[in-house]
What we know:
By secondary structure, the protein is α/β, with parallel strands linked by helices. It has a single domain, classed as Rossmann fold (3-Layer(aba) Sandwich). The protein has 6 helices and 7 strands, in the order ααββαββαβααββ. A 7-stranded mixed sheet has the order 3-2-1-4-5-7-6, with helices on both faces. A hairpin with a 3-residue loop joins β6 and β7. α1 (3-14) packs parallel to α3 (70-83). The chain binds S-adenosylmethionine. S-adenosylmethionine is lined by residues 4, 49-51, 54-55, 67-69, 72, 93-95, 110-112, 115-116. The site of S-adenosylmethionine has 18 residues, from loops.
Amino acid sequence: MKLWDFKAIVYRFWRRFFPINLIWQAEQKAARELFERDNQATQRVLNVGCGVGDNLPLTSNFVVQVDLSQQMLQQVRQKQSSANQRTLLVQADATSLPFRSQTFDILLCIGVTEYISDQISLLKEFQRVLVPEGGMLITISHRHPLNYLRLLLGHQLHLLPEEKFSRLLQSFNFRLIASRRTLIQQQFWTKKIDK
Ligand SMILES: C[S@@+](CC[C@H](N)C(=O)[O-])C[C@H]1O[C@@H](n2cnc3c(N)ncnc32)[C@H](O)[C@@H]1O
């Protein structure tokens, strides 16, 4: 069984336990505050690396949910029927998305970049699928002792300093609107510059 398919089985439960629940709730609150900065009432949203769908409450719009893991998507399917939300589930790699250019108004990528070694391809792809002035909420795992602990526990993470990732965002023509730091995440709310 693939790693993320295996993790999908425990994912539903582990965010309920202390102190994971507190860390997760703080991240969710910070992400919501960034996401709600602009009015996103009628927009096409892409959620990359959607996991088990814990980010579903962030938006009430039509959402395309992408994940590498079929098992993760399976759990989103169950959740979305109870949340009464319209979503399309797509199994794909974040660095090679099966969508036409300039398809989405909003892109969410929460808790994913740290698991991807090729962040250049990732940002190139996000730049491609977003419309000009499209909004992107993206997070990284920063260099906090807890993230080093996660590394020691066997998570294959790519930890980045905030400044380096900010520069990377700029080099792909993303304008930084706001940023939030939580215990183990740095969250960026950006807009794709219309060139
Ligand atoms: C830590 S979980 C985060 C899930 C969700 N975004 C959240 O915040 O609850 C990371 C997710 O990214 C997915 N993932 C990892 N690498 C990926 C890739 N290259 N392309 C698409 N999804 C990926 C995993 O399957 C997993 O569901």
